[in-house]
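Hi Y.,

Following your request, here is the sequence exactly as I used it, all 367 residues.
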Amino acid sequence: MAGVLGTLAIALAAWIIVHSITGFFIRSLGQNLMRISSDLASRIDADEHAQIQRPSDMNSANYAKITRLLEDFQRATPDVVSAYTMRVAGESAALIVSPPVSAGATALKGDTLQRRDTVGIPYMAQPDIAMRSASAGIAAADRRFTTDRWGTWLTACAPLKRSEGTIDGIVCVDKDKKSATRDMVRVNTIAVILAFACALLLWAMLVVYVMKIAVSHQQRGSDMKKLLLLLVAVAVAVPALARADQCKEPEKASLKPGMKVVAQWQGDNWWLAKIASINKKGLFNVTYSDNTKGSNKKQDQVAYYIYDKSGTPPPCFKEGDKVVAQWKGDSWWKARITKIDGSNADITYSDGEKGKRKLTDMVRDPW
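Below is the corresponding structure, written out as tokens. Let me know if you'd prefer a different format.
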């Protein structure tokens, strides 16, 4: 019995430690890339970047200056495999100073600028969460690797803010999965050693505890109950630890024109919309997905919708939370979560109707 419990304890401890350290490694790598992208954005003159609009501008001094800056920065920063700028518009994006045809600092040889794609060429994938967040004015990093025609990367982006305060585009930096995996293997090797050391210690303590139970016949029943309760507590804690690594509360974003939101329509009925403008009183004018206009919406009548189908982690919802959840199509209703089941939740809408929705198909009720 002790041997079985010891083996389970070792496996459980190893899984928890390796899983937690791997998640921490990816988050730390993303945070480092986000700092790098913000530093790079501060070096680029967004007003000069705004002058680059069409393919013929590739011959301009502004294009050459920014391209040179990106390549010099890439040579001096080993963590960056590719650096480039782009403009995001809704669900699509266009590359301005695209990544070099041959990615990686080792490909940047000599002083000759590397060959790049034409200005304005479409980015052949849906903008990821880091790109969308940066285009809204907030530097961000992806929590997962994404794949495009250049390879598989971890991406971080930062906004390019013009002197007048508007955002002209974004600058992004990439870390390739292959080199990140090598670093992760080294970290996980250390993690596994620590995990087994901790697990063996736990196993030894568990053996002593079980032997103590066997010797103490009078307290045997009571101690066995304690042991069972301990094992049940561990079994409950493991899914909670795993889920905590799969959800994240997004940073508070200042709402701006062009942002995708869920806005109140009438009563408890809300709709997907975009912010058209913000008046002097701080009230929001929105355009709903069916092109209907809404005006003078207060802060608690608009919720920032940052989630999509690209694997964005949802907020850490719990049972009893008030939310605004998708009902049908672009129509959303106020609801309350009654049960969490993995990435889904059972909800009860405000009119009493019950339903099941993905956690990414709901936002926190701003009221």
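The first strand starts at residue 82 and ends at 89.

Thanks again,
Q.
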